[in-house]
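WARN  no MSA supplied for this record, continuing single-sequence
INFO  ligand: NDP
INFO  echoing inputs
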Amino acid sequence: MSIITIVGAGMMGSAMSGPAADNGHEIRLVGTPLDREIIDSVRETGFHPTLHQQLPAAVAAFQAEELDKALEGAELVIGGVSSFGVDWFAEHVLPLLRPGVPVLSVTKGLQDGPDGTLTPFPHLLAERLPEEKRGMIPFNAIGGPCICFELLERRHTMVYFCGADLAVLEKIRALLSTDYYHIQLTTDVMGVEGCVALKNAYAMGVSLAVGIADREVGEFDAAAAEALCTPGAPDRNPVYNPQAALFAQSCLEMRRIVSLAGGDGALAGELPGAGDLYVTIFGGRTRRLGMLLGRGIPFTEAQEILKGVTLEAVVIITRVARALRARGENPDYYPLLFHMDAILNDGAEVDLPWSKFGR
Ligand SMILES: NC(=O)C1=CN([C@@H]2O[C@H](COP(=O)(O)OP(=O)(O)OC[C@H]3O[C@@H](n4cnc5c(N)ncnc54)[C@H](OP(=O)(O)O)[C@@H]3O)[C@@H](O)[C@H]2O)C=CC1
Ligand SMILES: O=C(CO)COP(=O)(O)O
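INFO  complex generated
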């Protein structure tokens, strides 16, 4: 039995309590200052209000100000924030980490630099460690298709754990592996993290086709809004050829971008790329944004409709398009990405550049 501390009580961080509990560990779930109500609820009844699921009995909940106490004796720290919470994590959590205790993050995203570099979060966090702790904390991440609800329902789920040191990754796998949580290991952090961040961007791109087809059903009214914004609602006008073509184009562009950034581009056709793209198109939140935009709803209006929903696609599309521009890359090599950037950042209408797709 080990102590595992999860920092960030959002949906995915909290869902990691499933495999941790099934391995018999003591689990401490710490909220960010924004997670106060979640922590109150978990403390009172064990119920997680955004996951709408009961957390395992082994979970003890802590408010943000109890972070130091929750980290005492921990053998693994799981970072549960979204890309919007990475600065908070760097500022408030990094200074409290104990040397030698590994971090495993669920966060999917990349940070771009002025020269067009794309940095995965494990590298970014390592750079932001206080001087006296540099090199003393191994940062690792989880990448791959894993919808939080299903992990907590103990559905078969296969992911990668990535980090610089295979021996550390082996130890973390031993803490969390179960007969339903299948974990592969790799030291290709850029490959895995690049793919899983980019799939959020491209899940929006593929879902544009669903919204475009929905235009044929009628005006954008209450029924259309419900069909497009309710998780799991069936498509009103199901069409698959355009989605399949966009899916393939997404894999092609992900391969090019990940290779350019220094990762193994082949992963774009495997679990972190195609696998995670598939699950996000069918089960993720990003899908709703793509469908609304495809329906012809301007981005600012779509944002308003989806207020409160975590949408990382917007950030990743903006950052990666900016990085590719900074590198002087030919936009015709990434036509779907640049079209998505124009829709979000220049108010462009959805008009998929079909003639530019393919090799
Ligand atoms: N949901 C899923 O199925 C999966 C998600 N992921 C990844 O896991 C990460 C978390 O996603 P998920 O749990 O779904 O998202 P949630 O929105 O449920 O949780 C996000 C977490 O980050 C915190 N956070 C957000 N903004 C800030 C901020 N500005 N300062 C401090 N903390 C902040 C949240 O606090 P608060 O809730 O109060 O905003 C919360 O603890 C994402 O990067 C996502 O891509 C990976 C695999 C699957
Ligand atoms: O990353 C995810 C599944 O692996 C979840 O995607 P969304 O952010 O679109 O919900």
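The two ends are 51 Å apart (CA to CA).
INFO  checksum written, moving to next record
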